[in-house]
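Priority: medium. Attachment 1 of 2:
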C-alpha cells in the first residue's frame, strides 16, 4: 500500500520524494486527508532498459553466411 503524504509536504519535499519513487516506492498524495493522486515509478524506464538489452544482444549476434556466399569467398581467396 502506498505511503500517504499531504500535498504541502509533497510540494516542499518533492526532490526527496522523487528519489524515493525512482528507487521503487509509491505515494498517495492527499489534500486534507482525501486521496488525490498516486505517484508511482514510471514503467518507461524498464521498457528502455529492456529495449537496450535486446539491441545489445542483436549486435552481439554473429551474422550467418549462406553456403553459396561461403563458396564464393573461398573461390575468391584462391585467385
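Attachment 2 of 2:
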Amino acid at each position: 500500500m502506498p505511503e500517504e503524504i499531504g500535498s504541502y509536504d509533497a510540494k516542499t519535499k518533492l526532490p526527496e520524494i522523487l528519489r524515493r519513487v525512482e528507487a521503487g516506492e509509491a505515494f498517495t498524495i492527499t489534500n486534507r486527508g482525501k486521496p488525490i493522486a498516486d505517484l508511482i515509478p514510471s514503467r518507461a524506464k524498464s521498457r528502455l532498459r529492456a529495449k537496450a538489452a535486446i539491441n545489445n544482444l542483436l549486435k552481439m549476434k554473429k551474422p550467418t553466411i549462406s553456403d553459396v556466399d561461403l563458396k564464393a569467398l573461398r573461390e575468391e581467396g584462391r585467385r
